[in-house]
Structures are given as C-alpha cells and as structure tokens.
Description:
The chain has 52 residues and is mainly alpha-helical.
Amino acid sequence: MDALETASGDSQDAKREEILSRIAMIEDEIERRFSGQVLAPYRNWKKSRPLL
C-alpha cells in the first residue's frame, strides 16, 4: 500500500488512474475482511507511518 501511495503521487495521469484503482480495490478487500470496522485497519496503518 505504501508503494502504491508513493507511486500515485509520482506518476503521470494515465498511470495514476491505474494506481488509484488498485488502491480502491485494496480498500474494498480490507472492508470485506474487516467488515464493520470500515477502514480502521487502513487508517491505523496510515497513522503508524511517517509522512513522506
């Protein structure tokens, strides 16, 4: 996820769309696996890493 977020900021528009769709797919999978928690695992992960 970290690599995808970094790449989304560094890429051109066409590549960015692909990366953002992959991020959305991962968010959907997190929601499926941890239903009822919405994106709590993702948000916790996001808080635990330093800002780029």
